[in-house]
Amino acid sequence: MISAxxxxxxxxxxxxxxxxxxLKSLAGLGPGGVPRPREVAxxxxxxxxxxxxxxxxxxxxxxxxxxxxxxxxxxxxxxxTEIAPLLGRRIDQISGGEQRxxxxxxxxxxxxxxxxxxxxxxxxxxxxxxxxxxxxxxxxRAGRAVLMVLHAVELALHYADRLLVMQNGAIIxxxxxxxxxxIAAQAFGLEYSLDPMPRLLPPLHVVKS
Amino acid sequence: xxxxxxxxxxxxxxxSLAWGPNGFGWPQAWIFWQLRIPxxxxxxxxxxxxxxxxxxxxxxxxxxxxxxxxxxxxxxxSLGAVIVYYWGVSRLFPPALPLGGLAGAALGLGFLLALAxxxxxxxxxxxxxxxxxxxxxxxxxxxLVLAPNPYALAEITFWLMGGLADRSLLHVALAAPPxxxxxxxxxxxxxxxxxxxxxxDTAASLGYPAAGTLRRIALGSFLIVGPATAVxxxxxxxxxxxxxxxxxxxxxxxxxxxIPSALGGALLLTLADLVTRVLPFPAxxxxxxxxxxxxxxxxAFLLRRRQQ
Lengths: 209, 308
Prior knowledge:
heterodimer; A: alpha/beta; Rossmann fold; B: mainly alpha; ABC transporter involved in vitamin B12 uptake, BtuC; two-stranded antiparallel ribbon
C-alpha cells in the first residue's frame, strides 16, 4: 500500500494522468481486483446517493461491510464530521459542502484502517475545503492511512505528509510536499514561485468546550 | 406500517373470499374452494410478487421507472404462452399454457443474462431488458396478426390483458412455489440494494458488487414474473406504483421497501380484483385496468402532497 498509517499522502497530476484509475485499483475495483471492505474505505469522485435518503441512513451504510449498525462507530463518525444537526434531513436538501461531510461520515463509519478518497474537497469553498482537510488530518493522526487524489496542490502543501505526482499513468515523483512541488508544477505545465503571495489561511483552531 | 398493511390485507382477503355476484355472504363449499380460494390466493401471491419485484428492480437499477415489465421477462412469458396456445396443446392439456409461459420466461432470463454479459451493470441490464422486451413484443404482434381466426385473436388479446377470473387450484399450485421462492430470493437482496444507492463502485467497495445483486434480482424477478404472467397474464402498474407509495410512507432506503412493497402489492391487487367484481359492468374488466385506475390517482395525490 502506498500510504502509511498516521500519514496523509496526496496524489496530484493533470487531468487524465491516471489518478482515479490508480486509486480505484488500490481499492480493488480495477479489473480482477478484490475489494477489502473492512480494511479499505473508498470515496469515489463526486460521491452521490440516490433516492433522497435521510442523512442518518446514509451514515449507517458505512456499517454494511460489518453487517451491523454499531452505534458507537456511527456516533464517532457523526461527531468527527460535525453533522449531528443534519441527521434527520434528506441528503438532496442540504448544501454541497454538507453532502461531502455526510459522504465522509459514511466512509469513517466503516472504521477501516485505510481511507482512499477521490477529490474529497471538490466544489467546496475554501473554508469548507480546509475543514475537510483538518478532519482528515485528525483521522490520520489517530492512526489511519489516508490516501487521496487532490487537484488543489496548495491544500496538499498544507496538509499532506507526502505528495505523489502522476503523469501519463506513471508516478513521476514521491516525496515531501515541498520537494515534489516543482515536479508537480512541471507536470501541470505551469511556472511556480516560492515568493510569499497573498493567500487564504485555514481558520485558527478553536478548542470547543 | 407493516402491521397496518397486514391488517388491511387480512380484511381485503376476507372480503375477497366472501364477495360474489349475490353480494356479501359466505358461499357454498364448492364455490369457495373452486372459485374464491384460487382467485384470492392468486391476487395475494401475484400482487406480493409484483410489488416486491418492483421495489427490488427500482432499487437495483436505481431507476424510479423500473418495474417488472422493464426486463422483458413478462413479455417472454406471454410469448411462450401464446405459442403454446397456437399449437393447440392447451386444449388437450390445460396446464400447457402456464407451462409454456414458464418456459418462455426461462428462455427470456437466459437471453437477458447472456446479452448483459459477465460484467453486469444496471445500465447493461436495462438495455438488455429493453431489447428482450422489444423482441418479444414484436413476435407477439406477429403472432396476433397470424391468428388462425378472429375468436383466437380475441381470446389471446383478452388473456394478454391479464385477469384472475376462472383460475383453478391447479394454477395456484403452479404459481405459488416459484413466486414464494422468488420473494425469498429478493428479500435477501436488501443490503446489496442499500449499497447500490451509493453507486456501483461504492457498493463494490462495501463488499456488495453490483453484478451479484443484479443477478439475484434478475433471478428473483424471473421466478416471480414468469409464473405470474403465465397464470394471470400481464398485470401492469403494481410493480411500478407500490414502491413509490411505500417510499412516501416509510422513507427511501431501498432495502427497507422490499417487504412493505410486497404487502402493498398484495393489498392493491386484492382490492382491484374485488372492485372488478363489484362494478356493474356487463363483463368483468381486466384487472390491469383496475390496478391502474385505482393506483394512478393515488400516486398522483401523493406526488402532489409531497410538492406542497
